């Protein structure tokens, strides 16, 4: 083939690309110009013959061996068991892509002992291509300053700046290849051109977001390698590899997708199926564990020659062990041991389970192969000797006590690890009696059952009938075995009853089979079984329950439970240590049986005062508070705990539309009614036309939907919900009750009672009908009428007297069309005769009046300070600084945003806005010496309600906004990580950190949460906060002596409205700006600053009136103000004439 004539080097254009190959939107199909695809290209004129290693230069200048290199983004990060190879040479080279022989692209090239890689820039973390040194056959010079790196199948052409630099590169490459070949001969590695000796843990094709074609991905040890296709994987020439020591894997919203997150990039993969996704997740999590593991323990144990091979299959360098059998095993055999159950073999990793490996345990494992007395003890246990048997010596009654008395530490360690080991079966016909603390009854059952593959997480999706396999299942001698068919001898798998922790019964038709049940085990596995008929399912559920539930809790078996099992708990006065109790969930009742004490009454889950989850993701605690008792259920095993949590939350929620199916309070009042009544009592008693005015339909329906779903978790906040929206939600809820508040059966009797002329007789009839109502209806009627009685006490202000309230609530409560006047008369009578009809004594009435009086006084005080609730609020806002001549008094409607407030202040002072003026409204806290820039779309009214006496609002220029916007424009991704100085508030004990000063901590901020790690190498965060619940204030109190002047204060408000506070300091001002910019970016979905300032006029809200005529609203605005002022002087005046 004739070689093309090349133009001079000076005429060759350079295409310099800044974006990485792995940046969003990049394509590997070869369509983009400048892409690095070499699929259809080869240097045909270059022979790919081998070369002689003797011709390689064996000596290099010292400058080539230890060059002065700029730091790489991956340098300095935590490294796993695979050491980071030393960079031999790095620098800029021009690379010739396959699209044309005259187009060169500048690339940053790095050579180490294992790979030749090139990047778009010296700051990129991930390469565009990597070529294993083992694949390189030779390096040749071609023309001026050019050289080629030739593999058995591919050729890569580079151009240096000078002949001297080319020579240095060629010598470095040649020496690296020679050393690689020498190592290969010593270790009997694979031939050149074939991938290294380390096999992959998992490999296959995956879709990567931003790429047209699928990539071939391989999980190898502690790395994830990306290849264009299977052919390149076999050649060993890939795109890049990801060090999993800085990686984290999590599921995405799509069922088939998952994200691999690193500090530099988020890789979003999609698999072919959900099952395949689970396999990838497991493989990558294993790579993370491998990356964060250490070989120190393994190397000490391998020092003994017999420990260098698996005790079962003989595989070399086994990295797992059975600590009770004192044998070392490989990864594959560890899976078999784990399947035997913890009662037979306790499997631990030599590299990952660091806390397990005490000095004594390591010595015991090493001594087990050489020490005769330890081997004799093993033999005795293997023959069925009991670890806790009586030794014959009262002073040392057990073998463990004897070993302790003799000072035999290795024997003690071995015996401790075998305390719970089950005795082996010596006779297959007559099984040995098991040494349970309580002997369980023998249960036997067998039949064909349909089964799915076991899962390591909850089954969120429906399992189709095709996913079930027909198996012959046998329950005998405390073991549930499943076989391929009834004639099979060897079971496909077993589940020991002693390992079952939970039995759950999903509702019919949850999966492909109408009747199913789930079995959870101690090994964090979930087994799903299906049957054709309800009778078969009930029989299996009954037998399995009998097999694993002890006689102590056998009363639970009589319940028609949805979930049954054991959980660690704390209750009563025994909060020092957790105990194990047995629980059964039946409908909305949770039955509990504790080891000590009488059988407890069931918890009425719909009547709970509190249902919350506390603690971090690793140590969660479910808190159930009902009247005078509190129960703490601990999440020791995450899988079954999450199942219990979801089932209890569902049972505690409303299950229907009737009153009795709602979440109830102590007095049998639905929580939804209590929430609305309480909110209106606090914020709407003096609101004009309350219950007469309608709220916005969309907001009302949205609020009602959330209340019906879980009213206990809904917190109505002033500023977020308008009183008219809440009142409309309450009216709609009462009107939509299927049976009505007064029930269909008694509705006519109530209406007829309103026509009785004698008042005393009519009241007596009302009392009689009230007593006939169901308990929940009766309690709700009393609560509602009590509330309306308070509302009409303020009729001079709210214009809602008894008659007006009756007109509104009559048709609502009796579900009429408004034509029957008798419905309104019943409500009016009940309000007028509230004290007599509901037998309200003087003490109850006094408490009610005191409560209402206190609420109104608080609202009046809010009016005086400029933060009143009704209508618009008047507050003081300062321009640029807090001084008398800079203050402005502004009316704040509920819809006003921080941007609108800023523009209004600037308009009042005639301040012009230039192009790069970033005027912002700040919340300033003088006590904390900190300020928070409000987001432009943030509502101002809720902020005013939370301001203390030492806080105020000020409008001024945001000096850092331009730098923050420039940073966000150049920053790729939504994450930020780095070290900061950290200090928690002295009043908080959440993290267990010393509070005397600031400490170095590693932080990672992403779109969902802020995580705190003790150090960069830490795998699990010490603390995690949801990012949208955080408020970030610039500045740290001086009395805390912050180490730098670039600090900020973070406040987190919990669901219980408890505030937690932390202080963080950065090293530079730019670093502080980057953190603040990222916070704003993730909290507000990327909208940090408005594209154009809004000039929206704020019109007064339209007052909507209903269709039924009322007594006219009286009085002008001035008269209304005088009425409020009169009430301020004497709040009880409105109640005296009642």
Automatic annotation (TrEMBL):
GO terms for cellular component: plasma membrane; trans-Golgi network. Residues 1-72 are annotated as: Disordered. PANTHER family: ARF-GAP WITH RHO-GAP DOMAIN, ANK REPEAT AND PH DOMAIN-CONTAINING PROTEIN 1 (PTHR45899:SF3), RHO GTPASE ACTIVATING PROTEIN AT 15B, ISOFORM C (PTHR45899). The gene is ARAP1. One of its GO terms (biological process) is signal transduction. CDD domains: PH1_ARAP, PH3_ARAP, PH4_ARAP, PH5_ARAP, RA_ARAP1, RhoGAP_ARAP. It comes from Bos mutus grunniens (Wild yak). Residues 24-41 have a biased composition (Acidic residues). Residues 871-960 form the Ras-associating domain. Residues 657-838 form the Rho-GAP domain. This is ArfGAP with RhoGAP domain, ankyrin repeat and PH domain 1. Residues 52-67 have a biased composition (Low complexity). Keywords: Cytoplasm, GTPase activation, Metal-binding, Phosphoprotein, Repeat, Zinc, Zinc-finger. It is found in: Cytoplasm. Pfam families: ArfGap, PH, RA, RhoGAP. Residues 86-178, 199-289, 451-549, 973-1084 form the PH domain. Transmembrane segments: none annotated. SUPFAM superfamilies: ArfGap/RecO-like zinc finger, GTPase activation domain, GAP, PH domain-like. One of its GO terms (molecular function) is phosphatidylinositol-3,4,5-trisphosphate binding. Residues 295-365 form the Arf-GAP domain.
């Amino acid at each position: 083939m004739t070689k093309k004539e090349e133009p001079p080097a000076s005429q060759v254009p350079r295409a310099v690309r800044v974006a990485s190959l792995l940046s969003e939107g990049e394509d590997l199909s070869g369509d983009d110009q400048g892409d690095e695809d070499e699929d259809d290209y080869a240097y045909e004129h270059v022979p790919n013959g081998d070369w002689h290693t003797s011709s390689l230069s064996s000596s290099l200048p010292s400058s080539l061996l230890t060059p002065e290199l700029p730091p790489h983004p991956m340098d300095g990060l935590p490294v796993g068991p695979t050491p980071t190879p030393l960079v031999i040479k790095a620098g800029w080279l021009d690379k010739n892509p396959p699209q044309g022989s005259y187009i060169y692209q500048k690339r940053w090239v790095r050579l180490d002992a294992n790979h030749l890689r090139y990047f778009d820039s010296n700051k990129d973390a991930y390469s565009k291509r990597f070529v294993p040194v083992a694949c390189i056959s030779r390096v040749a010079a071609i023309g001026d300053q050019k050289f080629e790196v030739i593999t058995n199948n591919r050729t890569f052409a580079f151009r240096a700046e000078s002949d001297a630099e080319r020579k240095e590169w060629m010598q470095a490459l040649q020496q690296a290849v020679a050393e690689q070949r020498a190592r290969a001969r010593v270790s009997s590695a694979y031939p050149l051109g074939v991938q290294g000796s380390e096999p992959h843990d998992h490999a296959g094709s995956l879709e990567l977001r931003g790429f047209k074609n699928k990539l071939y991905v391989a999980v190898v040890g502690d790395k994830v390698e990306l290849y264009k296709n299977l052919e390149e994987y076999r050649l060993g020439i890939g795109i890049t590899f990801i060090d999993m020591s800085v990686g984290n894997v999590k599921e995405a919203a799509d069922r088939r997708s998952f994200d691999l997150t690193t500090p530099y990039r988020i890789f979003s993969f999609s698999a072919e199926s959900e099952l395949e996704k689970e396999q990838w997740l497991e493989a990558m999590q294993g790579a993370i564990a491998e990356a964060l593991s250490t070989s120190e323990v393994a190397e000490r144990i391998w020092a003994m020659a017999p420990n260098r091979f698996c005790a079962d299959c003989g595989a070399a360098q086994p990295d797992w062990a059975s600590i009770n059998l004192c044998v070392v095993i490989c990864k594959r055999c560890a899976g078999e041991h784990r399947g035997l159950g913890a009662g037979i073999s306790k499997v631990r990793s030599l590299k990952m389970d660091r806390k397990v490996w005490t000095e004594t345990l390591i010595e015991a494992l090493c001594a087990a192969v050489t020490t005769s007395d330890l081997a004799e003890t093993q033999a005795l246990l293997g023959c069925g000797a009991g670890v806790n048997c009586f030794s014959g010596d009262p002073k040392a009654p057990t073998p463990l006590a004897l070993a302790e008395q003799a000072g035999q530490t290795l024997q003690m360690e071995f015996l401790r690890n075998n305390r719970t080991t089950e005795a082996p079966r010596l006779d297959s016909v007559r099984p040995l009696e098991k040494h349970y603390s309580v002997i369980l009854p023998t249960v036997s059952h067998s039949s064909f059952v349909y089964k799915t593959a076991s899962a390591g997480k909850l089954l969120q999706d429906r399992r189709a009938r095709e996913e079930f396999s027909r198996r012959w299942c046998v329950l005998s001698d405390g073991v549930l075995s499943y076989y391929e068919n009834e004639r099979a001898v060897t079971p496909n798998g077993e589940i020991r009853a002693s390992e079952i922790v939970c039995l759950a019964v999903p509702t019919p038709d949850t999966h492909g089979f109408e009747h199913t049940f789930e079995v959870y085990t101690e090994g964090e596995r979930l087994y799903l079984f299906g049957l054709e008929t309800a009778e078969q399912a009930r029989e299996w559920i009954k037998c399995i329950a009998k097999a694993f539930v002890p006689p102590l809790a056998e009363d639970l078996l009589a319940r028609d439970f949805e979930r049954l099992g054991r959980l660690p708990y704390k209750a009563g006065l025994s909060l020092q240590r957790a105990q194990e109790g047995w629980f059964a969930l039946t409908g909305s009742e949770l039955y509990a049986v504790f080891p000590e004490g009488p059988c407890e009454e069931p918890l009425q889950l719909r009547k709970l005062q509190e249902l919350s989850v506390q603690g971090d993701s690793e140590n969660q605690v479910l808190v159930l508070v009902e009247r005078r008792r509190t129960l703490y259920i601990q999440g020791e095993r995450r899988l079954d705990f999450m199942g219990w949590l979801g089932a209890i939350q569902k049972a505690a929620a409303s299950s229907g539309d009737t009153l009795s199916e709602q979440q109830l309070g102590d007095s049998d009042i639905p929580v939804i009614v209590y929430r609305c009544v309480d909110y209106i009592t606090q914020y709407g008693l003096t609101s004009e036309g309350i219950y007469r005015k309608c709220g916005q339909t969309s907001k009302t329906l949205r609020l009602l939907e959330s209340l019906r779903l879980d009213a206990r978790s809904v917190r109505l906040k002033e500023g977020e919900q308008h009183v008219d929206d809440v009142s409309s939600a309450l009216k709609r809820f009462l009107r939509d009750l299927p049976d009505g508040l007064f029930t269909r059966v008694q509705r006519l009797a109530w209406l007829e009672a309103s026509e009785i002329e004698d008042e005393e007789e009519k009241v007596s009839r009302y009392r009689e009908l009230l007593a006939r109502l169901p308990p929940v209806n009766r309690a709700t009627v009393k609560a509602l009428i009590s509330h309306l009685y308070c509302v009409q006490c303020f009729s001079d202000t709210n214009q809602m007297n008894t008659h007006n309230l009756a007109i509104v609530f009559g048709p609502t409560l009796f579900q009429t069309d408004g034509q029957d006047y008798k419905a309104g008369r019943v409500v009016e009578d009940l309000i007028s005769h509230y004290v007599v009809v509901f037998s309200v004594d003087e003490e109850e009435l006094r408490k009610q009046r005191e409560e209402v009086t206190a609420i109104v006084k608080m609202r009046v005080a809010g009016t005086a300070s400029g933060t009143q609730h009704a209508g618009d609020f008047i507050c003081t806002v300062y321009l640029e600084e807090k001084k008398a001549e800079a203050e402005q008094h502004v009316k704040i409607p509920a819809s006003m945003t921080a941007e609108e407030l800023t523009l209004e202040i600037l308009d009042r002072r005639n301040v012009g806005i230039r192009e790069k003026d970033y005027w912002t409204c700040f919340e300033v806290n003088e006590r904390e010496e900190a300020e928070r820039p409000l987001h432009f779309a943030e509502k101002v009214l809720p902020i005013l309600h939370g301001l203390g006496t030492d806080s105020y609002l000020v409008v001024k220029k945001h000096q850092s906004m331009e730098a923050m916007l420039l940073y966000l424009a150049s920053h790729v991704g939504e994450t930020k990580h780095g070290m900061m100085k950290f200090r928690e508030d002295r009043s908080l004990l959440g993290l267990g950190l010393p509070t005397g000063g600031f400490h170095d901590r590693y932080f990672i901020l992403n779109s969902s949460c802020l995580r705190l790690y003790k150090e960069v190498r830490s795998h699990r965060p010490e603390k995690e906060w949801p990012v949208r619940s955080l408020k970030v204030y610039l500045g740290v109190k001086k009395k805390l002596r912050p180490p730098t002047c670039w600090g900020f204060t973070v406040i987190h408000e919990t669901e219980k409205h408890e505030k937690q506070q932390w202080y963080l300091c950065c090293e530079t001002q730019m670093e502080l700006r980057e953190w603040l910019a990222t916070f704003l970016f993730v909290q507000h979905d990327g909208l940090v600053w408005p594209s154009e300032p809004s000039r929206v006029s704020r019109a007064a809200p339209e007052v909507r009136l209903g269709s039924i005529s009322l007594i006219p609203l009286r009085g002008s605005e001035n008269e209304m103000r005088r009425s409020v002022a009169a009430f301020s002087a004497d709040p009880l005046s409105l109640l005296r004439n009642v």
